[in-house]
Design goal:
By secondary structure, the protein is α/β, with parallel strands linked by helices. It folds into 2 domains: 177 residues, 3-Layer(aba) Sandwich (Rossmann fold); 90 residues, Pantoate--beta-alanine Ligase, Chain: A,domain 2, CATH 3.30.1300. Strands 1-4-3-2-5-6 form a 6-stranded parallel β-sheet, sandwiched between helices. A 3-stranded antiparallel β-sheet has the order 7-8-9, covered by helices on one side. A hairpin with a 2-residue loop joins strand 8 and strand 9. The longest helix has 22 residues. Bound molecules: adenosine monophosphate. Adenosine monophosphate binds next to helix 2 and strand 5. It comes from Helicobacter turcicus.
């Protein structure tokens, strides 16, 4: 495994690799580090589907608002490298901020994620968040020129907006959505779970229980969004729910669920930590 820290080294490496291996496929797994089994599942898929796997580890400042946890975000370089080594990753790209943003980010080219998808749900409380995500993801695509890039369904809105960017800009990369990995008792794995106490983790289980209650109700034939929301909110009683939404793949609210185009999203705050979970139906 090679660890590269500069964009120059990475570009050089990719150019060499492509010249020597014109028919080999490259898989990219973009992460912000503090790797857990959720990230590992993306790496495993890349290893299965591609000849060469690159993991990027970069806590991207442009997707954090000034009041968010950029400084506090867990950073675990050594453990991350061990995980990548064990998973037989080919390259870990771990740049400093100045590598990705040689100029102050306000002096750089930026672009806006489509408003209808970016100003709702997560975007409502995190203005500019998805613009920052697209900025860094596009930079990573251009640097690594992947055949496929792997993203978790855990960050549903992010995944859909990245798919939209790829479609709108005709980017030559296939986005592979990967299922949510959970603890045995159902909590969706997240680097931010590290902020929770044991009690907090127990309370957080209400989120996946609420999604399970919705799945069960759907199986029993309930389709109306209002009824499904009521069922979930009962399970979440006592928890600070920031939003519970039932939307289609364009993130438009649905009155009634439709098979293969429904997304149920829950964001709740437990011990001050924002936790996201969702259900793709
Ligand atoms: P992050 O490091 O939080 O930016 O996440 C990097 C990638 O891992 C994103 O595509 C996430 O959606 C994905 N990811 C994070 N947690 C999970 C999980 N529990 N299951 C599957 N994918 C995940």
């Amino acid at each position: 495994m090679q660890v590269l820290c500069t964009t120059k080294e990475l570009r050089h490496h990719i150019a060499n690799f492509k010249a020597k291996n014109p028919n080999k496929t490259i898989g990219l797994v973009p992460t912000m580090g503090a790797l857990h089994n959720g990230h590992l599942s993306l790496i495993t898929q890349s290893k299965e589907q591609c000849d060469y796997t690159i993991v990027s580890i970069f806590v991207n400042p442009t997707q954090f608002a000034p009041n968010e946890d950029f400084d506090k975000y867990p950073r675990k370089q050594e453990a991350d490298l061990n995980i990548c080594q064990k998973a037989d990753v080919d390259i870990v790209f771990m740049p400093e901020i100045a590598q990705m943003y040689p100029l102050d980010s306000t002096l750089q080219t930026t672009f806006n994620a489509p408003k209808n998808m970016a100003n709702v749900l997560e975007g409502k409380t995190r203005p500019g968040h998805f613009d920052g995500v697209l900025q860094v993801v596009l930079k990573l695509f251009n640097l690594t020129q992947p055949t496929k890039a792997f993203f978790g369904q855990k960050d549903a809105q992010q995944l859909l907006i990245i798919q939209k960017m790829v479609e709108d800009l005709f980017l030559p990369v296939t986005i592979v959505p990967c299922p949510i990995i959970r603890t045995q008792d159902g909590l969706a794995l997240s680097s931010r779970n590290a902020y929770l106490s044991e009690n907090g983790k127990r309370e957080a289980l209400k989120i996946s229980s609420a999604l399970n209650a919705i799945t069960k109700a759907i199986m029993q034939g309930i389709k109306d969004s209002k009824s499904l929301e009521r069922i979930a909110l009962e399970v979440l009683e006592g928890t600070e729910v920031e939003y519970l939404a039932i939307v289609d793949r364009e993130l438009e609210a649905l009155q009634s669920i439709k098979k293969d185009s429904t997304l149920v999203l829950i964001v709740a705050r437990i011990e001050g930590v924002r936790l996201l979970d969702n259900l793709w139906f």
